[in-house]
Amino acid sequence: MPHEIPLSRPDITDLEIELVTSVMRSGRLSIGPMLEQFEQMVAARSDRLYGVGVSSGTSGLHLALAGLGIGPGDEVITTPFSFIASSNCILYVGAKPVFVDICPRSLNMDPAKIEAAITPRTKAILAVEAFGNPARMNECAAIAARHEISLIEDCCEALGCSLNGQPAGSFGRVGVFGFYPNKQITTGEGGMIVTNDRRLADLCRSMRNQGRPLPTSAASASAPSSPGIGTWLCHERLGYNYRLTEIAAAIGVGQMRRLDEIIQKRQSVARLYFDRLMDNHDLILPTCEGAFTQSWFVFVARLASAYTREERDRIIQGMRRHEIGAGDYFPCIHLQPFYRDRFGYAPGDFPIAESVSQRTIALPFFGSLGAGDVDLVCQTLAHMISRENIKQR
Predict the structure, then answer these.
(1) 229 and 272: one domain?
(2) What is the pTM of this model?
(3) Which of 33, 10, 25 is nearest to 253 (CA)?
(4) Structural domain harbouring 359
């Protein structure tokens, strides 16, 4: 019987464990030097001046929208082909998500459709780099600049990616990374806002910490001895508990020190998949166009257009029965029950995203995945596809 191959697995070593232990021994578990170091490392990697560590990529997107003053009556253009958080965050601030369809190759929003969707109520474009692909982000930035609106770059899946030498996180006025355990690096849960806008960074720092004013010195960053003295019980604005702990930041520092090594391992696994699947005419493999460096969040193949969602689902179920992790990344947001009920979306509204979505298969993907495991995944996938082909005859 084959051993279980999970869909993802974090890459944690003794370095991260030692850094976490050092934080535990320090007695400083929140708002400390490890967070500051982690923020600086991620900001530098994304060619940004400021990093703001937060509790998740979702909370980072929420703060970015709130910090830009987006609210009720405003519209934000975004993609229906993403994890649902990228759209939910727009609703958090009372604005309306306006979906546009995607490019069938990059799986990112089609810039021509973005241009056509802009109205006087449009305040921002929230562009998601699907599966970590920054393709056409430069075009999104140009559209945002031309219309004098903000580009919010959802680069939660793209740390370490670049387009024409420009790193993910540097295309928009603000970018947001995520560090869930299946990402390139992880902090368990966590995210990072990156920007060159100091005012926006400071505002996000305040909002992540219950709306407290920023401390003027290191001493005032910790709780004062008397309630109401100093800044700890002063709240200048509506805020949230979106802090990233020192423990999580310690994991992040260790991961960032190893980022190039982690990316190289993930690139090697991706090459194994390409080598074994490139001649399978039932599959469309991820597209890497132009001067594009991919750090590989996931490896998502999709079935050829002749296949249905039901056939795709049976293939995924068959792989899971053989203890091989597989997933349907991503179901379209506009067809999720909440969005259909609230906004009246229906099948056919965004046909390219829907066609792609019903045929995607996320395969097991992590840096320690060996060649033998990749062989087993690909053999099992081919077997499940062949079973569907027999049924069609």
Answers:
(1) no
(2) 0.94
(3) 33
(4) 259-392
